[in-house]
Q: What sequence folds into this?
């Protein structure tokens, strides 16, 4: 539940934003939101316009409300892949912030139906706590950055705090209190996931030497086998003095690293689990499962693929039987996972219900205003 509160509670983010008060929105014509942006702030769009980007029930969210929160992230936006335009990243940033603002507004609207949930006294206590925590100098600094009078600052601050308390209360009642995980649910999940999640299959630790030829050079396979037989003889002599699988592995590992052409040649080491999705050559896996611990295998031909063929020999130095995670240990993991899953489900159901009750209208053409022009200008500079 705490994770959900953290995710959808942007109170801390807004407090840190210089213009956090403008992000509160208001019914009908929002007071203070059509004011020009402070001279110290950049123009939000090339035309310095501030259109409505979303309506949530009776509330309006303006472009400046979103930009005050995401402007810094937009400035540093850069694509993960070269083929991704910066405009796509910037649009995603704006949409993510707008989605958070819409969700917050829906939760506040849902709580408005229950004014008894948050009293004026509890609101005032939280207001004073926050003001004390900020300190008078910081409060004054933020008031100046917001460009409002002291009375307006405190009025909007109180409103914002009350809405935050309302939002937290609806989440507590509709998500936290309804989120119950029973022993029966935990047992059912354990039985369902026992083989897939809570079972570690048989496993083998192996050092191996692989060498390959392109498939079109299959005629050279006898020569490659002779070379591998000679390498195996060297390896056998190298580990002859060792008396345990671990000691043999310690001697064989450098040899495998030096002579193997496998992709793991830097270690010459493989750890194989007995499951269908194992990512090793099928013949190699089959031989490992049949091998005797601590004995050097014979040279054998790999299954290969459509590009290459080859030979291999290996030393298995560790084998572990399959084991199930005990129920008592798994139950703790399952309990946490079920709480998280149900919290997300209850939260989404709450949002869906509120969206049915309060119409949400998003105007993406306004939300993305100025992005294409700015990106084009940046590309030509």
A:
């Amino acid at each position: 539940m705490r994770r959900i509160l953290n995710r959808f509670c942007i109170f801390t983010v807004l407090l840190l934003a210089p213009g956090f008060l403008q992000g509160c929105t208001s019914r009908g014509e929002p007071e203070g939101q059509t004011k020009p942006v402070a001279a110290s702030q950049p123009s939000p769009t090339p035309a310095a316009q501030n259109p409505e980007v979303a309506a949530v029930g009776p509330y309006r969210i303006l472009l400046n409300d979103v930009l005050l929160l995401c402007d810094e992230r937009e400035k540093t936006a850069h694509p993960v892949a070269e083929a991704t335009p910066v405009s796509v990243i910037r649009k995603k940033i704006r949409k993510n912030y707008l989605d958070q603002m819409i969700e917050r507004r829906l939760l506040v609207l849902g709580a408005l139906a229950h004014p008894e949930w948050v009293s004026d006294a509890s609101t005032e206590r939280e207001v004073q706590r926050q003001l004390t925590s900020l300190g008078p100098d910081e409060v004054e600094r933020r008031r100046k950055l917001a460009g409002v009078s002291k009375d307006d600052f405190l009025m909007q601050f109180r409103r914002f705090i009350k809405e935050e308390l309302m939002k937290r209360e609806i989440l507590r009642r509709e998500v936290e209190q309804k989120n119950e995980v029973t022993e029966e649910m935990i047992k059912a999940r354990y039985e369902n996931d026992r083989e897939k999640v809570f079972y570690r299959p048989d496993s083998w630790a192996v050092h191996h030497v692989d060498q390959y030829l392109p498939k079109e050079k299959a005629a050279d396979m006898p020569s490659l086998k002779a070379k591998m037989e000679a390498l195996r003889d060297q390896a056998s002599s190298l580990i002859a003095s060792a008396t345990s699988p671990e000691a043999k592995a310690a001697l064989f590992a450098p040899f495998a690293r030096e002579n193997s052409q496998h992709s793991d040649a830097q270690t010459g080491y493989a750890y194989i689990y007995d499951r269908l999705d194992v990512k090793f050559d099928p013949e190699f896996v089959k031989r490992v499962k049949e091998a005797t611990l601590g004995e050097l295998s014979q040279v054998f031909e790999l299954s290969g693929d459509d590009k290459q063929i080859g030979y291999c020999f290996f030393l298995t130095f560790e084998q572990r039987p399959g084991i199930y995670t005990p129920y008592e240990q798994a139950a703790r993991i399952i309990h946490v996972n079920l709480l998280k899953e149900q919290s997300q489900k209850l939260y989404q159901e709450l949002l869906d219900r509120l969206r049915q009750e309060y119409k949400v209208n998003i105007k993406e053409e306004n939300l993305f205003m100025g992005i294409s022009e700015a990106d084009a200008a940046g590309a030509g500079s």
User: Anything to note?
Assistant: The chain is about 55% helix and 15% strand. Strands lie at 26-27, 52-56, 59-62, 199-200, 203-214, 269-273, 300-301, 308-320, 323-324, 360-362. The chain has two domains: 2-180+334-380, 199-324. Confidence is low (pLDDT under 50) at residues 1-48, 376-381.
